Structure prediction request, 451 residues.
Amino acid sequence: MRKILSISSALITVMFLFAVEVKVCYLNEKLSPVIKTFEVEGDVVTAIFQKLASPPQGLRTYVPSGVLRAYFFVGNTMIIDLEGNKLKGFSFEGERYFLHQVLYTIFVNFRNVASVYFIVDDERKNVLVRYVDIRFSFPREVWEKWPIR
Amino acid sequence: MKKLMIVIMALGFSSLAFSIEIFAGNEVLVRTTEFHLDFEDVRKVLSYISSVFQDDSFKEGTIGSMRYVEFRKHVLLHTDGIYVLDDERILADGVPVDVLKRFGIEYVQNDGKVYIVDCEILAVKELEKTVQIDFRGVRRFDVLEDSGTLKIVAASWLKFKQETVPPKTILYRLEERGMRIAKIAEEPGQVRVMLETPARRDYLVKDLGEKVDPYEKRVVFLIGYGDGRVIYRNYTRDLKGLDFVSYSQSKKLAQEIAQSMNYKVEECPIYDLPLGGVGVLVLVRSEQEREKLLEIIEKVMQ
Prediction:
């Protein structure tokens, strides 16, 4: 456990020191994924969420600004803590596409992450907003590809 | 030299042209180099038929220098190149193939090849979930099953419904969605093909938003309005494989419906789809599509 924590903190330190190229998933008008590449500095995860919330012209996003509260890495699992009040106005479509955009972007950028958990306002919840079950982890095998075909 | 070659080739061709091969299934039972059978060839065929049809009227023996075979009340005698069939001398150097008919041997002759009919299908019966084939002789048929269709097919010439039918003739055919062979039991003169058909599954249709029992055992179809897609639950590592079966069945169902409706398929853990159960959420575009979906569900679940 100590080793994992020290590796994780080393990784985070490295992420803070250098500019890193990240891939971010947006949506076009047909709700198909469009990947854009950016160079970011500092906290990569925070930078990814900021990029997710500001789509380039002509593209859409369902990720609101300031939705990331915190994040943690435990071994090869990532835990994302979300701001509950930022999720409140989501439609059913918004709820699902928020999830797909975030997970797809995380799995594309963090090759060592095998699964992701979501918590809201520092608490385990049953649903993200109303429909999407977040009691269990989301596996890489499903979301490293776009899950809509 | 050239002349010699021609003579050798001609001899070769003539021996081929006047040779007879008698087949039992795909195996050669008798091969002659002449146009006639000899005593031993006839004896071999009669003995074979007697054995496969368990006909004990076959007898053979010698009286002095004369050999004889008796089968089905007919007798062939042979001595010093002379053949006598039922007190009638055969005026040839050997026994013509059609003498076999006198002994009640059924065969099909084609280009010097003689196919003995050593199998007779007596009946093909369907008894609940079993197809039973009663036959005499050697089993000369195959049991094939592909995508819910069972076929009993002739593997070589055989007798079926008083007729001699060629290989590949379909003797019986049964179609039923999802049907497959559970077991084939064989004993002399009988093959039983036990079939199994997945039981018609119970299902439940609800509108998205209506309460669904989280322990629902029936297949759940949730219907909502949207842009034409079928959503099913992903699996999760947390359940350590316990959801693999429901995941794969839900995925298959989603793909089947999406294909019929020309919809997209989406993988997403919808809370109202029971965990560990089979179910999908379908987002239809209109009331008309909802009606079509209900028909498709009915068809898919049969």
